[in-house]
């Protein structure tokens, strides 16, 4: 069975851009930098206090969000290539890295940074996530991309 892979858009997240946000224990956004606002199309007031999931692209497997929060709540750092959604509905791909803030104030518990992934990492993630949505596996293709290797390993342990 062949998988249709959409072209990788490269016009939303400029090389060298770093999108940063913080989230609290209730998974609400407590901080966002200007680069995140510019890329997503949301104003600061539209993001603060809102669920982090508002930025999730609908095609992303729910297992990724569960994996993210399980890792953070265990005190681990999490990283994966994921697709986010702009206010206008358009998607953009990022290499997301999230970490718990160990000695943080109670209202800021997690920090998440997004950088631009390579086109190869996006294509590997697209294949993996399509397989996850179908309930099948494409571990050989996914394992070829080290940027999503941690996600693959965690998902394999669950199935």
List the helices and strands and how they pair.
Elements: E1 19-23, E2 29-32, H1 34-40, H2 44-47, H3 62-73, E3 78-85, E4 91-100, E5 110-115, H4 119-134, H5 139-143, H6 149-158
Summarize the structure.
The protein is 34% helix and 21% strand. The protein has 159 residues and is an alpha+beta fold.
Can you characterise this structure?
There is one protein chain. This protein has 159 residues and is an alpha+beta fold. It has a domain of 99 residues: Beta-Lactamase (2-Layer Sandwich). It contains six helices and five strands. 31% of the residues are buried.
**Percent helix:** 25-40%
Report the CATH C-level class of one domain: Alpha Beta
Q: How far is the first residue's CA from the last residue's CA?
A: 21 Å
Which H/E pattern describes the elements?
EEHHHEEEHHH
Low-confidence stretches: 1-5
The major pleated sheet works out as: 5 strands, antiparallel
CA radius of gyration: 15 Å
Structural class label: alpha+beta
Q: Can you tell me the CATH topology of one domain?
A: Beta-Lactamase
Count of DSSP-assigned helices: 6
From the 3D coordinates, which CATH architecture of one domain would you assign?
2-Layer Sandwich
The CATH homologous superfamily of one domain is called: PAS domain
What spatial form do the alpha-carbon principal axes imply?
globular
The spatial strand order of the largest sheet comes to 2-1-5-4-3
- Average pLDDT over all residues: 80
Residue share in β-strands: 15-25%
- Total DSSP E strands: 5
Main attributes of the structure:
159 residues; alpha+beta; Beta-Lactamase; five-stranded antiparallel β-sheet; 6 helices; 5 strands; 34% helix; 21% strand; globular; disordered N terminus
């Amino acid at each position: 069975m062949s998988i249709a892979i959409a072209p990788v858009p490269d016009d939303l997240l400029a090389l060298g851009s770093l999108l940063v946000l913080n989230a609290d224990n209730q998974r609400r956004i407590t901080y966002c930098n200007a680069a995140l606002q510019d890329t997503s199309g949301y104003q600061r007031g539209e993001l603060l206090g809102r669920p982090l999931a508002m930025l999730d692209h609908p095609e992303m497997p729910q297992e990724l969000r569960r994996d993210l929060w399980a890792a953070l709540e265990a005190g681990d750092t999490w990283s994966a290539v994921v697709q986010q959604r702009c206010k206008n509905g358009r998607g953009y791909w990022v290499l997301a890295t999230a970490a718990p803030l160990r000695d943080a104030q109670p209202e800021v518990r997690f920090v998440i940074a997004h950088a631009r992934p390579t086109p190869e990492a996006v294509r590997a993630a697209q294949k993996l996530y399509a397989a996850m949505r179908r309930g099948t596996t494409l571990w050989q293709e996914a394992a070829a991309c080290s940027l999503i290797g941690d996600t693959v390993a965690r998902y394999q342990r669950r199935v």
